[in-house]
Amino acid sequence: MSIVKGIIVPGIPHPLLCPEKNEGWTRLREGFEAARKELEECGAERIVIYSTMWPSVIGHQIQADPEPEWVHVDELFHDLGSIPYKFKIDAEFGHSFQAAAEARGLMARTVAYHGFPIDTGSVVALKLLNPDNRMSASIVSSNVYADRAETVVLGKAARDAIEASDLKTAIVVVMTLSNRLFTDYIDPASDHIHSPKDEEWNDKLLEFLGGGRLEDVAQLSRTIQDQIRVHKVVNFKPMWWMSAVMGQHNRYDGAVHAYAPLFGTGGAVVSLTPSNEVAGDKEYDEEDVEVFQGNRTVLGASTDGVQQKPTSESNSQAPTLRTTTTPAAVINTDTAPAPVGAYPHARQEGGLLYLSGVGPRQPGTNAIPGGPIKDENGDALNYDIEAQTEAVIENISKILIASGSSLDEVIDVTAFLVDMDRDFAGYNKVYAKHFTPIGATRTTIAIRALPTPIAVEFKVVARAPKS
Amino acid sequence: MSGSIVAGVLAPHPPHLVYAENPPQNEPTAECGWETLRWGYERLRKDLEGIDYDTLVVLSPHWQTYVGTHFLGVPHFKSLSVDPVFPNLFRFHYELDVDVALAQAICSQAGGAGLVTKMMENPDFRVDYGTIVSCHMTRPQWDKPIVGISSCRATSYYSVEVMQKQAAVLAEATRKAVEESGRRVVLIASNSLSHSHFTTESAVPEDMSKEHIMSHGQHMWDMRAIDLLRKGKTQQFVDEMPEFTSQAISETDAGAFTWMLHALGMPEYEAELYGYGTVIGTGNAVMAWYPEGK
Question: Which end of chain A is more exposed for a tag (fewer CB within 10 A), N or C?
């Protein structure tokens, strides 16, 4: 395998521009240097960077300008000074990475424009980990809308491209642990982690990473986002990506080279070296995904855009998605999960809207909040009925809004549960939260199974908007 | 003589609009595109021609500062702006002057009112594309100095409500500084309305057969916002801002629109609607308020 190292570094520029102003910033600078030496000693010839500080909207972007050169200034910490740079980018790899991403159903493109604004995090990482451009580099953006499935598939695409070449490659992720900055200027000497709660979570993450448990951290990404991340983007993604590139396991020798506060955030330099040691069992609580099947058909009826490409490599639990039906009076929306049969999301007859059965799957990703009820082999999994029920109601709300109606207009609900004994209480609790003020009639039925590995589905009748 | 705010403009900043205009400063060229918005800007420019003003004061969501509100503090900038999201459409060679004295005055007023503020004095700094697009579409001659104000991301760190309160303080500071400066200024809120993007792009970006609002719900929110603003119900619009920002995934979270409406004194008269159109699924309106009339 040509992936020889994984490195996690913070992107905030203080360790590069003013390490001397704070003891912790100095330690981080030394941590960068320790990581740089590791890269040199392991013979890494290329580094592939995923930066949380490079947001993209149109799929993912991959840097492919062979020699980008600029004088960079951070938009927030501009008073710390300018950063002139000239990097060596592996454009050929960038194109290979893009092709691999597209082969897995992703939207991706390379960028090779003079003056393209390389983000502060990537600049800091390259200046400190690769100051002499000994290694060639590749940088990929973080899509603001991408969630787990898209990010994991992007990681697997990077792995495809790396495996297709023969260069020893290091994976670099630019991120902080907790990311809450102070919102006022501080005396550098007084820098500290924003809150004890953030500090405790950072300690836990470093315990995991120091133990080489990368996939375990990836599995905790949603919790990390909830606990210690200011929600600037939809989720905390870098560990999903990194673990997907590096093989989705916990078999690494981890080393925490430095950890220190960076203007309130948690900055850490960590290295992960592939190892044969097994660092405990991993517990997958979300399904794996090989090909991205999110909805890319928003451009309209034309068929020359990027379409969903279900393949034999797709998860066997995922039913083939259907093109939504479109006769008059039917309603379909991209904001709700794609149907699993030849039916629309809703249909209006007279003053009423009849919704097809709605489950908790997420539009675009097909992910199941609260987890699937069984794995590919049909073995039962633990799942969260409250999360699934919340997602069902949210999907219903989206369909009703797309229909010009709303949840308040629901008249009648038929709910289907695959395990009444286990799930009724949780389902009933979430239902009451949303429907008590609405006063819709309701029937709850236990059934043997639903077409996807979900535990709950609603069938709804609502008032249509007055024309 | 007391200065005054002579106009407030809602000036969305999709780089697509500059791309479709084919100005000599922009490297890529287009065949056409997004005409309803561009014609709207054209009508705005004609109306602004009839008004005497000195400076454009613009608040952009794409200069994002998590520590306070920052102000451009270098007298002259000349550089290349490449949009990090649409570099295929926007590689713009800009040259602009900054009204540093007014920027400093607003910065001081806002700081005195309790906001965290900072002047940006690094000459290598690259002006964000949102500022450039909104200013170019409003005044392509680039013959007026600008005051560039960053977007303090209070929404991310606290809530829309906190952002609104901070924007109101910044607005009051802006109004006072303008009055004391003797300048006649046009305020620019550089933002769209609904802001859910397509995540893919057609092969020909200006292929208008592929352009539409992201969803019916987004359109409904846009129409509600425009309806309120055309009826002079700016206070109601600002009161509904938390829900609008959440439901329309709007970049009103940046505070620019709230800031401008507060600085205009929450106008109760009808806004001038110059145009509405979508850009990669987002909803955009070109609108203006004229406190002293056109």
Answer: C
